[in-house]
Amino acid sequence: MKTKAMALALLLSLMGCTESSEETKNEVKKEMEKAGETTSEAYEKAKESAADSWEETKDATSEAYEDSKEMASDAFDDGKEMASDAYDDGKKMASDAYDATAEKAGEFKDAAAKKAYEACVKMKEKMGGDVSECDD
Predict the structure, then answer these.
(1) Most buried of 9, 17, 19, 23, CB within 10 angstroms?
(2) How far apart (Å, rounded) are the C-alpha atoms in residues 28 and 25?
(3) End-to-end CA distance of the chain
């Protein structure tokens, strides 16, 4: 567009130096005005297009930000829930292990007491002692 306008300006100036008709000058002026209007319209359209693109970009960015905030919040909530479940499972497993250990300890204690009683009875029988003393 600039080149066309410059060419028309040059043509107009040349025409001014020569003896040309007023009609030709007016035609050149009209062409220059059209070129100026076309340039102005193209500039305005480009400005509007840039403004529209900027608004679309802002909207898309805002939506992406809100979506990512929501996703992060959901992931955090899921993580909290999973941690809570794991904690509860761990407590239950520890309680079960404690109960199983206590049960086994009771079994070992009973087995040890039975073995001690049997050893005491055997010893009393061999040594000639009173077996009722083994009940203590």
Answers:
(1) 9
(2) 5
(3) 118
Reported pTM:
0.43
The answer for residues whose C-beta is within 8 angstroms of residue 36's C-beta and 6 or more apart is 5
Question: In 54-71, which positions are buried (b, 16+ CB within 10 angstroms) versus exposed (e)?
Answer: eeeeeeeeeeeeeeeeee
What are the tokens at 110? 């009973």
CA neighbours within 13 Å on the CB side: how many for 22?
Answer: 0
> What is the per-residue pLDDT across 70-119, written as a single tens digit (0 to 9) for each?
999 989 999 999 999 999 999 999 999 998 898 999 998 999 999 999 99
Instruction: Copy the structure tokens of residue 69.
Output: 């905030």
Burial class (CB in 10 A: 0-12, 13-18, 19+), 4: middle
**Helix ranges, the chain (H):** 2-17, 22-127
Helix, strand, or coil here: 21?
coil
Region of residue 128 (phi > 0: left; psi between -120 and 50: alpha; otherwise: beta): left
